[in-house]
Amino acid sequence: MARSIFPNPKPPFYRDTRTIAVLVQLVFLVGVLLAGWFLYNNMTTRLAAANTTTGGALSWNFLSQTAGFGISEGPAFQPEESYGRAYWVGVVNTLRVGLTGVLLATVVGLLAGVARVSNNWLLRQLAGVYVDLFRSTPLLVQLLFWYVGVIAALPNIQDAAELGNLGYLTNRGMYLSWPQLTATGLAWNGWLLGGGGVAVVVAWLQRRRLRRSGRLGSGLLAGVVAGGIVAAAGYAVVAANATLPTATTYELRRGDRGTLFEDRNGNGTLEPAIDQTLAHVPITLYGAQDEVVAHGSTEQDGTFRFADLPAEAVRLTWSTPPPLVLSEPQRQGFNFRGGVSLTPEFAALLLALFVYTGAFIAEIVRAGISAVGKGQWEASRALGLSTGATLQMIVLPQALRVIIPPLTSQYLNLVKNSSLAIAVGYPDLFNVSRTIVNQTGAEVQGIVLVMATYLTFSLVTSLFMNWYNRRVALVER
Amino acid sequence: MNKRLTMVAISLLIIAVVYSACAAPAPAPAAAPAPAESVATEPAAAEPAAPAEQAGSLIDTVKARGKLICGVNNQVPGFGNVDANGNYSGFDVDFCRAVAAGVLGDASAVEYRYASGNDRFTLVKSGEVDVLFRNTTWTLTRDSAEVGMEFMPVTFYDGQGMMVRKSSGITSIADMDGATVCVQSGTTTELNLADVFRAQELEFTPVVFEDNDKTLAAYDEGRCDGFTTDKSGLVSSMTKMADPSEHMILEDTMSKEPLAGAVFQGDPAWADAVRWIVNGLIEAEESGVTSQNINEMLGSENPTIKRLLGVEGEMGAKLGLANDFMVQALTQVGNYGEIYDRNLGPDTPFNLPRGVNALWSQGGLLYTPPFR
Ligand SMILES: N[C@@H](CCC(=O)N[C@@H](CS)C(=O)NCC(=O)O)C(=O)O
Fold it and tell me: From start to end of chain B, where are the E strands?
């Protein structure tokens, strides 16, 4: 009889696994809360004893106080700006090195991972050595190696190595000629954006057309051509209409430096929040006798500055620049100005991060490729596809499903590892936060801020990667 | 699977509950063996009494511990340096030793902790160190409740300077427009640099490192046109450079840097004790008491010396110290002048003239309130 086999269909509540599960969770939660409370209490007691903040409460007012220190690179920052803004500069610097690092690590990892399963013996060995070498030495050691061993060994700025017409290489960084939009070129931004949109749409249409007619190809070329046409047409329009604003005026300081800007509120003084600085505008400086003391142009940030002028300048004139110029680095005083520069700190950190993470990604890619059944290769070959085409169209798309989850954690690692910046003096968010904490005594707030920021980065990365993972996942019916 | 996990968790929980219930009345540390043991066998070794301090003063904690924990530099020869054998020496280090002698009667009862520019105030505030002697400038913000330091008497009047290459053609800060300057983070140096250059409308790029060795190395390799820190630090750093003769220190003094010890702000008794040990070292120099002549001086008829050495009055007791606290500090470490000469004087590689750090009676700034 069924009844005798299950004498008690409903066990007492303390033996009900559902109740127990809830109970265990509750006990655990209480434990966590108690531990948290203990730590918090410990902190506030100490803070109150130190009388450092009003009654142990944490104040965030310091964020709006004047920082007073300079930051070597990143978005323009003046010492008279606030701690909050300084932290923001640190955040941007972390993103700069983090995003570039993720991109490069992916490329390097993909290439090395594919090379590891290549038929080419030499390539396979080289990739193997790369992976073994960089995966099994500590990141900090590698970072210092790049910074102290490689970059510091480059020539001094006095005898900078010339890179052809491209720029200069010194132990203070790499200075490169770079095309840059001028004050009249800003209108081109809209055209560029439009061109990008057109490129995407055309590429997509072309790809669909190819697929429908059973052909391969990505439609990339068609997209690039279409986008290029839009951009070129836009350039012609912008160049034909190039004028500087009528309210253009300047500030001249010390007779050799200043800023050229559009005085939007007409009060004659530069207010960064309101007025617009004018980049790469050709200027001529005149002295007291109306003699020309210097020719040159403003820089990316609208400032100009000349070293060793024959006389003090008292006024200047300007002319309209083309929308785009090639900004070239030039030695002025102690350093190069113009072009783009890559500082040793950024370069070392970026190198260390992407070379190190690339080695891990290579292994993930290799494992992903190995996970795709041999039959897929054989079938593809039987259909007459080349190795490259097989890899690109058959194997990698399937391998991606295995690759993405571990890849996500490599990305997260890279961003978090960027806090090693402190070892080479790159002003990332952690480095800047340490200075802020030291100057303001806001230890707890500083740590909370840093943790919240990294957490945000990690969550956003995970969200994005999860979304992508779902997209490439096998859709089963 | 889930069920199994739950069962394991429950069993563990039950075991824990049963164990702790059994152990509660008995002293046996059965409930949590690992932490209980480590607490029991290592009494206060690396454990600065944290919240308990509210009640008692560090002065009792230090005495109970039998050791002073002092935050110092470890890479600034002459001020705070550590040799290959782990021995600390320097001007600042000697003040740690004097405090240990005054409080504990033993100048060697000191545990040194490296206090980096950025971390030093956190170390003091969190109780990781009892006192900080690490070429630290006394400033309003640091003294205020915001950073929470209590400053001791100034032990070295300094000012910020700038080191440049002789070949650079720079002769003063005014020549440094557009220069790149290597500087250490978490210092007044970093702030003064910005102030001085801003005031003269000069542009500069700071390259900021965490410690002195890195900052100096970067400058030495040519990363920067200038290296700035306290002038004392520049003189000290020069001894570590590849070729010191290629460099020079500019005449400009960029700031006032009164270097002083510091303790936790919420502990007046401890602050007083440390403060008067430092004052005593200066008073001893003024009164002519040295480690050499202290035995004769114990018989001196001079009332100031009598009070200083605890022969008369209860000066030590008023501070919670033994009355002969200065005798201990002076015999084992020496007076201010002796400390200065030993670490920075003519017989050292630094050969720093006393300058403003002479006694007030000799035209300097050193002046201690009376020992009475
Ligand atoms: N007196 C200044 C600066 C003191 C300072 O940090 N000087 C440097 C350069 S001599 C130093 O001691 N560095 C030692 C280190 O932490 O590596 C301050 O209190 O902020």
Answer: 68-72, 75-76, 80-82, 88-89, 110-114, 131-132, 149-158, 160-165, 179-184, 204-209, 226-230, 247-249, 257-264
